[in-house]
Structure formats: C-alpha cells, structure tokens
Amino acid sequence: MSGEARLLWDEGVTRYDFGSGHPMDPVRLTLTMALVEALGLDRRLTVRGAPALDEETLALVHEPDYVEAVRRASRQPAVREGGFGLDSMDNPAFAGMHEASALIAGQSVAGAEDIWRGEVAHAVNFAGGLHHAMPAAASGFCVYNDPALAIARLLELGAERVAYLDLDVHHGDGVQSAFWSDPRVLTISLHEHPRSLFPGTGWPEENGAESAQGSAVNVALPAGSSDEAWLRALHAVVPELLAAFRPQVLVSQHGADTHFEDPLAHLTLSLDAQRLGAEAAHAWAHEHAEGRWLALGGGGYAVVDVVPRIWSHLVGIAAHAPVPPETPVPEEWRRRVFALTQGEGPRRMTDGRAPRWSDWGTGYDPADRVDQAILAARRAVYPHHGLLA
C-alpha cells in the first residue's frame, strides 16, 4: 500500500446549497479548501476530483424511487415532492440537488476505492459525512448518504470488516440504519444525548439487529459535555472495540458541530479537543486497520470560525503533516474570509486549550452522567465482542 494521502475535491460540491439562511452554508467548504491551500497542505498530498455517482452505485444504499424523486426535485424545485423528505425546512429542494449530492458521494466512494486498491493509505473528503440520509428519504440536511455508500462500495469490493466512527454531535442514524443487520460493519457514534438533540436516536440499547448484535455502538453524552468528558468517553469505548473487531478499513466522520460556538447543538468542545479526536482516529487506523483510513466531514455551522480550521487540521493529519496548534492563520485566508463574509475570521489554529482527560481505567464515578453514558454503551455491546464491560 502506498503511504500517500489524497484529498478528494471538486469545486462543484459547493453547489450543494439549500439557499440563503440555511445553516448548511457552502461557504464552509470554500473557506476550508482556501485554508488548506493557504497552509500549503495541498502540496503535502495529492488533490483530485471524482465523478458523480451513477444510479447503479447509488442503489447500493438508496431506493431507485427515491433517487428518481431527487432528480425530479432537482429539475423542478418549486414543485413540492411529498413522501421523500424533500419538502421540509431542513431539506428544501434546490436546482441541481441530485447532481451536487451525487458529486459529494462520488468523492467519498472514490476515496474508499483508492484506499481498498492500495493506491493511498488515507483519503479525505471534508464535503462528505452526510450521515442522516435514509434509503428512501432525505433527512437532517443530507440527501445521499455518502459514508454509507463508501462503506457499501468497500463491501462490494471484498472488504469483510469495516468500522465506522461518527464524531458528529448528532447521532449517525442513517449509517447505523443502513448496516443494522450487517455484522460486517461496526458503527460507533459518539453524540449528544437523543433527549436533547435531533434525530432523537442513538440510545445505548440500539446495538444492532438480532443477526448483528453488538454491531451498533452508541455513546449518548449529556448536553454541556466538554473536552475532558468527550475525550474520556471516546477513549473509554473506541479502541477496545476496534481491537476486538479488527477492521480492514476505518471510516470516520468528523462533524464540527460539537464545538462550543456551534449554534445548533449543546456540546462544548474546543477546536483542540476536536483535533485530538482526529489524531486518535488516524492513530487507530494505523493500529487496527493497516493504515486504511477514509476521513469525512459532516455537520458544522460555525462556518467561519470553526469548520475551516478543524477540517484543515484533519487534512494535515491525514497528510502526515499536522498543523501545530499555535500556527497563525494566514492573512491571505483572513482576507478571503472578509471578501466572502465581511467578517474577520480567527487568528490561530487553536482555541488555546490543552485538554487532558482521565482514562476509564482510573475508575468509574456512578454519580457522573458521562461515566453513566460510557458504562451504558459498554454494557450494551462489549459482551457481544467478548469484552468485559
């Protein structure tokens, strides 16, 4: 396998645009790529685009009737398309929706193919990570489920075990649903508790169909959880499961909406904790999946201050050229921010924090809600992997 890393990028992904005022502002993609270039990260890996997915590949996850509905809505967005989630405030139809959505999915699938064929060790598609889309419905700003499509393509190519790690603040419900009955796929989601956040799923008891018990893992953290709590939960659950499952590929989703500035959720992570999460995913890919790592974006609605910085860190980590946290944000990028948003933009690649956390082995506090969430997840799935909760 080549040690080379690859960034999948096509300017056309910025046409994934639900319109003015929608939280999923495509400027977050434009500014991320601009920051990647300003930091010189595009010279530390290969950058290439991939074609949009065809209907045959979309059908690995999505129902043909739904794909056709998306096509119709793309051609006539003013005509309400009932029954497919395309007439809601979250997922309003827009011209070219099918083409833009299939293009984003195409980047993720191409990254998966490059990794499986040994062309690269790591691939990144920060425009991807649209984890809420269901086989026959759009949901949560997501039209086509590119993580599920990438995983399904890996299985089609012969992969026997794929692990999916979802670090978005929202539960990775669409990916979990796609592989609910498939023991070849281990889905792990670390998210805000479903009592307080969309989509209302991701309880620890959701652990897979009878034929795939333990294949779905959900760590539901209380609102307000910050750096140390999140990192404790991440390290208390993920590495042991990956060691037991022995994935051939790790697919990770790095939604930036866990950040304390994000307007749509209630976790309070810093950029520095998010970066440590990306570093952990990278290390686990090398430790447990022979280095095969597909890293995707996801949610994130602090589109200037947070999203471009964390996803640039993600690209740097994948390129084995991590950006030191104290690095000043290039002035050329800040000028681009002002030109596009009339805002100033952040000045450093850090929030100035140095998170530390206590390992699970240091003991369990039965009164601590985070420890309760960790233990609930471990008890729900560990026995199915031969592990002690």
From TrEMBL:
Keywords: Acetoin catabolism
Keyword Transferase annotated: no
One record GO biological process: acetoin catabolic process
One of the record's GO molecular function terms: histone deacetylase activity
Record domain Histone deacetylase: where: 22-315
Keyword Repressor in record: no
One Pfam short name: Hist_deacetyl
Superkingdom, natural source: Bacteria
SUPFAM superfamilies (alphabetical): Arginase/deacetylase
Pathway membership: Ketone degradation; acetoin degradation
Parts of the chain that traverse the membrane: none
Entry's family note: Belongs to the histone deacetylase family.
This protein's name: Acetoin utilization protein AcuC
Species for this entry: Streptomyces mimosae
